[in-house]
Amino acid sequence: MIRAMTRADFENFWPSFQAVIKAQETYAFDPDMDIEQAYQIWCLTPLKSFAYIDNGQVLGCYYLKANAMGPSDHICNCGYMVSEAARGKGIARTLCQHSQQIAIELSFEAMQFNSVISSNEVAIKLWQKLGFQIIGTIPLAYRHPKLGYIDSYIMHKQLVVNT
User: Fold this and answer.
1) How many CA atoms within 13 Å lie on the side-chain side of 123?
2) Total-model pTM
3) Which stretches make up the N-acetyltransferase domain (predicted)?
4) Is 17 part of a structural domain of the chain?
């Protein structure tokens, strides 16, 4: 079940969130941020945030926000996280499909991911299967703890045809 993320849902997911940011392999978040800072970034600043719940546990979540303001506010941006124990079970796919539907309902016309780390091959393949294209490369944009400086990609998908 996917539902709007509550404070309790975020607290339930916090150990997974914290593990992701401490690993420093996929998100450019401060690895030492506390739960309040993380909650602000993931749940309060974005337009919407959602949780994937199974048997009372939050296995994954995402946020959705406008990618820019004014004349570019028709393009949204999302971020997704899935707990390590739940990876490989289709949760990221389900969350991404859900986010696209919500984006269309909120009148967004396209979705853009601003920094998909080039070593995150599983995510890149999934986003491409779901219709996203790499539209740009930011050279050496990410300091990976094991690989050193690596590229990140900008990925984009048109959700509705512009009129």
Assistant:
1) 22
2) 0.94
3) 1-160
4) yes
